[in-house]
Fold:
Amino acid sequence: MRKVLAGLVLILVCATGVQAQKGTFKGKDGYKIKVKFTDLTDSLVYLVHYYGKPLPTIYRSDSARLDKKGEAVFETDTFTLGGIYMVLLSDKSNYFELLLNNGDNFSVTATKAKLPAGVTFKGSPENTRFIEYVQYLVDYGERSQKLTEKLETAKSAEDTAAVRDQYKVMSDELKEYRKKYTEKYPGTLLAKIFNALKVPEVPPGPHLLPDGSVDSSFAYDYYKAHYWDDFDFQDDRLIHTPIYDGRLDEYFNKLMLPIPDSIEKEADILLAKAKGTKDMFKYTLWWLTRFAESSKIMGMDAAFVYLVENYYMKGDAFWVSPEDLEKYIDRAQKIAPNVLGRVAPELKMPDINGNMQSLHELDAKYTLLIFWSPECGHCLTEMPLVDSVYEAVLKKKGVKIFGVRTEGEVDKWKEVIKDKGLDDWIHVYDPERKTRFRSDYDIYSTPVLYLLDERKIIRGKRMDHTNILDVIEMLERKEKDKKAGKLKS
Structure:
């Protein structure tokens, strides 16, 4: 499993992996690792660890200098969270992995020219078994590569099928290796890692519904329902492996319906599994918050608000500083009034002729609420495109446009309206700054488009001319299905 750390970007000191404090190792907390290189002297070496995900970012835990004999000692008497660690050479490209548990005391001998092979341990049976596994994977990878080459040169369907059968045999072999290990050494770190790597195996079919028809969703439902069966959320050491981030990514991006209610429900389930831990809970809540906040899927910001209100504001984000906590709360409070499914905040503003207009009093099946500026280059491109869709199809759907000028000279605003042919819109602005439209609708850039239904409930947000009709047609399908009794009201 030789890897080249060409993508290594950072070696950081973080909250979960601080610089080790040298002291007298007593064996209760901390570690003592004697390192000897047979072909390297007078050089810095680092003890680093993963944090939830693979490279390129790893976290430094300790450092030491090899003496003229090629020997160095990593040592601390403070509690150390175990996991998969690496001894990384100063060239940042050569290293070998090891398993570390709090209280470990062992020695390791390595040869740089043979890495990641050429490593032997003394005083750590688990690391000896780990190295055996690493060597097994090297052989496994070589055999897999040969099969890949055979697959590329296969000349018939029979040849291809034969190679795929051999792949299946190899896959089963790897699963059996890990299974036997976990049965023989239950509770060990490597056994926990093997369990964390397991994915559900769907029972062979056919799988039938009560009426005798084939259950086409059985495989998906089973895989999702059993996805986390063997992952130990109560073992913080799994954070110091490259496993968890990838599993979260697959689960939430490939298995979950991308709607806030589903994400919030699953977030609660995972956080409950990790409750009582430190690092596992922290990483889980951090990952979920980042996932919800950065999602490009419309409406996912509601999940972000949910997490802030139900975890951050209740003191569960113990690692967040008061200043950062305030930022989370402030962001959630700006988003909360305008998440999907909530009634749009009222806007009362004078229109282009000085007549007062009310958003809530506008009689329309759908209202397209647009915040834009005549000073915004993207707005000048997007507004005519929106108007074209409006004239072509949206008007027939019962859409009316309520356009809010956010900034810019009034004369230029009127000029753009005339030049771009936007006369059929209701244009309003806030010359005396009496409204809270920026905070109520989270307007920090333009243009911003919201779609409201006839009750002024927000049904779409942060859209553009390409997807307005799609959202309306989706709403119409839901309404049609509801009337047909296919959906619960």
Remarks:
- The longest strand covers residues 57-65.
- The chain has three domains: 1-155+168-206, 218-338, 348-483.
- Residues 1-155+168-206 form a domain with the Immunoglobulin-like fold (CATH 2.60.40.1120).
- Residues 372 and 447 are 5 Å apart (CA to CA).
